[in-house]
Amino acid sequence: MTSFSSSRDFALQLDSEDKLASFRNQFLIHDPNLIYFDGNSLGMMPKAAQDASRQIVDEQWGVDLIRGWNKGWWEAPSRVGDKIGQLIGAASGQTLVSDTVSVNLFKLVTAALTYQPNKTRTITDTFNFPSDLYILQGINAVLSPSPSGRGARGEGNYEIIRIGASDNDITPDLAALETAINENTALVTLSHVVFKSGYMYDMQRITDLAHKKGALVLWDLSHSVGSVPVHLDDCNADLAIGCTYKYLNGGPGAPAFLYVNKKIQEKLSSPIWGWWGQKNPFDFDLDYTPAPGAQRFLAGTQPMISLLTMEAALEPTLHAGMDALREKSMMMTDYASFLTENWLVPFGFSLGSPVDSAMRGSHISIRHAEGYRINRALIEEMNVIPDFRAPDNLRLGFAPLYISFAEIWEGFNRIRRVMEEKRYEKYPMQKLAVT
Ligand SMILES: Cc1ncc(COP(=O)(O)O)c(C=O)c1O
């Protein structure tokens, strides 16, 4: 491991050795003084996306009008899905861009549970993104038999097991996870990189454990795609979902993606039988026949302007390659952990992420009882943008395409100033709507 120094010159030295440094020029840098540590929530805008969005609006929508559907719009979900597939180890024909992460989760979980109706257990963890847990609860309400006899399953109690932490909310309890996966388990669904602590699961190991008991596995890759290499096919993963507005820089609300492994595509049925998932949509049959392959998991018309803008936004990531991105990302989170230890622990911070960079994604959480007010002071006075995740996590994302080591140094320097000068004290405890 590199031995770090807290001098600014050392950060500049790391930048001079950074093979990805030039990628920053491919992004719109509106304010060079802004330290943007939130690319794990909303990526910065690639210039390619800005150019593409203008062309899409002016020429494709403006001029082509409906002719656009036969000029590449119709195929866009699978074409762009295959590009994302290159980043997550998925051969073509398995990844589709569609809808939101939440909606894709609903479709794939429902398909997985109805595929093995005798099995009543779904396993997840308390580290998962809350929307994922809500979707599971909602599916439970739809599928479980009600007193009136409605509900598709018709037997047993449908149960959701939530595995807890093995420590202070940094690492999931892997022993408990292993024990919980039994013959009655239909599905194990986890975030590959978890949203608060950044802990990263061993995808191969968990997938194998689930398969041994006959369960399917679904990975939420929202914090993984574009930040860590993922090998869905090699791991024999069954299902995955993820977003494109974080490390893929696709823009706010850009459509999400879903992955269905070829080996189970024909066995699964989408719970939303829309015309985009029908075998021959332009026959306008009055009855539904699923399209072959993953296509059946499309439902309706996709948001072309943001989908095509996101396609252009993928260029820098595809060009840089996941191995180079991961190498820089690990160096960045190691460096940030080092600065936390040296500069911030004396002010009462602690690292809220795994110590070993091989066990985490491209963000770290640093914890402090005053985390929320510190976050406010950083955004409003110091031109530093992290985010806050309750109860005490100041989350710092390091997007390897456009963050420099000198910015990490400067960002931590400003956090240190907020602490030295107690600037957070003037902010109310009352939280804003978005933290
Ligand atoms: C890990 C994870 N899963 C799911 C979601 C929900 O995504 P969406 O709002 O696009 O449905 C998010 C949103 O940030 C997320 O971080």
Commentary on this structure:
The chain has helices spanning 8-16, 47-64, 76-87, 101-115, 130-143, 174-180, 203-212, 232-235, 262-265, 304-313, 315-320, 322-344, 371-381, 405-420; strands at residues 35-36, 95-97, 121-125, 159-163, 185-191, 216-220, 239-242, 257-260, 350-351, 363-367, 384-385, 387-389, 393-397. With 435 residues, the chain is of the alpha/beta class. The strands form three sheets. The chain has a seven-stranded mixed β-sheet, with helices on both faces. Strands 9-10-13-12 form a four-stranded antiparallel β-sheet. It has a two-stranded parallel sheet with strand order 1-11. Strand 6, helix 8 and strand 7 (239-242) form a beta-alpha-beta unit. It is globular, with a radius of gyration of 22 Å. Bound molecules: pyridoxal-5'-phosphate (PLP). Pyridoxal-5'-phosphate is lined by residues 100-102, 129, 131-132, 191, 195, 220, 222-223, 243, 256.
Lay out the secondary structure.
Layout lengths: L7 H9 L18 E2 L10 H18 L11 H12 L7 E3 L3 H15 L5 E5 L4 H14 L15 E5 L10 H7 L4 E7 L11 H10 L3 E5 L11 H4 L3 E4 L14 E4 L1 H4 L38 H10 L1 H6 L1 H23 L5 E2 L11 E5 L3 H11 L2 E2 L1 E3 L3 E5 L7 H16 L15
Parallel strand pairs: 1-11, 3-4, 3-5, 5-6, 6-7
Antiparallel strand pairs: 2-8, 7-8, 9-10, 10-13, 12-13
Pyridoxal-5'-phosphate binds next to helix 4 and helix 5.
